[in-house]
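Hi R.,

Here's the input for the L-homoserine complex you asked about:
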Amino acid sequence: MTNEIKIFSPATVANVACGFDVLGFCLDNVGDEMVIRKISKKGIYITKIEGYNLPYEAHLNVAGVSALALIEDANPDCGFEIEIYKHIKPGSGIGSSSASAAGSVFGINELLGRPYNNTQLTYFAMKGEAIASMSEHADNLAPALFGGFTLVKSIAPLEILQIPTPKELYATIIHPQIEIKTSEARAILPKNVPLKDAIGQWANVGSLIHALHTSNYSLIQRSLQDIIVEPYRSKLIPHFDDVKFAALNHGALGCSISGSGPSIFALSEGLEVAKNVEDAMKTIYSETGIEFDTFVSPINTKGIKILNS
Ligand code: HSE
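And here is the predicted structure with L-homoserine in place:
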């Protein structure tokens, strides 16, 4: 059995407009790389971090905390070194902490001969995710580990449903270079919502799930609406309304905040439309003076990928 594995741990989009804390999907061409190595000394050791300044102490690092949760349960007769090559900026809203948290447990599980399934790995990874966002949620972790679209039906007990991905669906992302902390973006949300809004929101979640199952793009379009969270959080993102208007005007099926922001995502039918949406987003932001980057991605139906082992 191999002693070292190199993986690609992808960025993800949580919430998907109407599904706050339950829906997510996996991106394909943006993510972190990690090397996980089995060693004889017991414990978790983060030996290298490139890209961003993050803690090396395992109990303070999301990849370390999830790995510690796994080995506490598995009690293996060895330890693990973790190298993190971070490409997803922390606080960008595309699942930076989840990529680290999911990557470490995925890699260790492979090196141990896969004792755990993806739901169990999500459970361990939630322990790491919780130190980044001050709350346990799995809507970025589940798509990173399972791939495609996922619905977190419940977190206690943890139950994750895999939702099919329509073939022609592409994501466009714009990432304004400002940081929004997930904990702060959660703190501004109301504790209660009017019943009328709840009805609209759960109707949208239900119809989006049906639309994804049936590749009904026009129903996807009518379902990608967030009545509850977006009105509060969009105020934290400069020019959000202009970007959304431009994206929809250029053919996007829907456009909303990616996770807790500041990234904004759009979903489109076909690569060409997704690229037009990217150009439209760029045009809005290039006039703002705020640095940003954009990309277009297919939906990654595989999740974390093994690069070599
Ligand atoms: N569902 C979470 C939120 C995702 O929107 O706060 C962010 O990690």
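One thing worth noting: Residues 14-15, 20-21, 133, 137, 139-140, 182, 185-186, 259-260 surround L-homoserine (CB under 6 Å).

Cheers,
M.
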